[in-house]
Design a protein that fits this description.
Elements (H helix, E strand, L loop, with lengths): L5 E5 L4 E5 L10 H7 L4 E5 L15 H9 L6 E6 L1 H12 L4 E7 L16 H13 L1 H13 L5 H13 L6 H13 L13 E6 L9 H8 L4 E5 L6 H4 L1 H13 L2
Parallel strand pairs: 2-3, 2-4, 4-5, 5-6, 6-7
Antiparallel strand pairs: 1-3
């Protein structure tokens, strides 16, 4: 039986599960974890098929959420970045009794752009899927560059993300395609209106994948949630602005 990779660090009785984005692995949280570990018990998980969680094939969002549940504490807050935000949201929808608070980072309940909804154009995601089969490394590098575009530290951040990808086992094309399918097809906008647990949504003002004009639309759809925009940050605000990011997260988790 395949098992997920999980690393637990930190102190305290507040549990926080961190879920990374497409193409990456839990090492992406290394600098964030250093700042949060004195205050929380952190559980860094490689999503199925990514990094050290090898042996898994492509999954639906529901299957991915169910698999991540097996590596979670009985009750914890969830923090998910990008694709990880969808996984965290699906867990909160499936088993809300196991989730204390939900934080999504540079994520959207619907990543694909529609006529009345900002997001990634469907042809862009389809293009990535086609390119994956032809040149895996170049396609992943392009996606990583998109994630940092616009921030003051874009080149440095892109190099860091690339080193994180290449420092661990690389996901199969099948797994990466499955992740892109989730980003292309999943729409949790309506289901998430039923959530009653505390929700925080964090965005980068310069994010080209999850544009900031989505924020007021989600504020209206999810009036019980809170949103924070980090200025001069792109799709990876926890890498470009770690202190601001950790301050926002810590404040939300400690609040009653």
């Amino acid at each position: 039986m395949n098992t997920l990779y999980r690393e637990t660090i930190g102190e305290g009785d507040r549990h926080l599960v961190l879920l990374h984005g497409w193409g990456l692995n839990a090492e992406v949280w290394r600098y964030t974890a250093e700042r949060l570990a004195p205050h929380f018990c952190l559980h860094l998980i490689d999503l199925p098929g990514y990094g050290r969680s090898e042996g898994f094939g492509a999954m639906t969002l529901e299957d991915m959420a169910e698999t991540v549940l097996t590596a979670m504490p009985e009750k914890a807050s969830l923090l998910g970045w990008s694709l990880g935000g969808l996984v965290a949201s699906q867990i909160a929808l499936s088993v809300p009794q196991r989730v204390e608070k939900l934080i999504t980072v540079a994520s959207s309940p619907c990543f694909t752009a529609h006529e009345d909804w900002p997001g990634i154009r469907p042809d862009v995601l389809k293009g990535f899927q086609h390119q994956l089969s032809e040149d895996f490394q170049r396609t992943v590098e392009r996606f990583l560059a998109l994630q940092t575009l616009g921030s003051d530290s874009a080149r440095q951040d892109a190099r860091l993300l690339k080193s994180i990808v290449l420092g661990q086992p690389v996901p199969s094309v099948d797994v990466l395609n499955g992740g892109l399918e989730i980003l292309r097809n999943v729409d949790l906008r309506q289901p998430m209106t039923a959530l009653t647990l505390p929700v925080l949504r964090i965005y980068g003002a310069l994010d080209g994948l999850v544009p900031r004009k989505m924020v007021p639309l989600l504020d209206a759809i999810l009036p019980g949630s809170r949103s924070e925009i980090i200025e001069k940050a792109a799709h990876a605000p926890f890498i470009s602005h770690p202190e601001t990011f950790c301050e926002i997260v810590g404040r939300f988790l400690i609040a009653n």
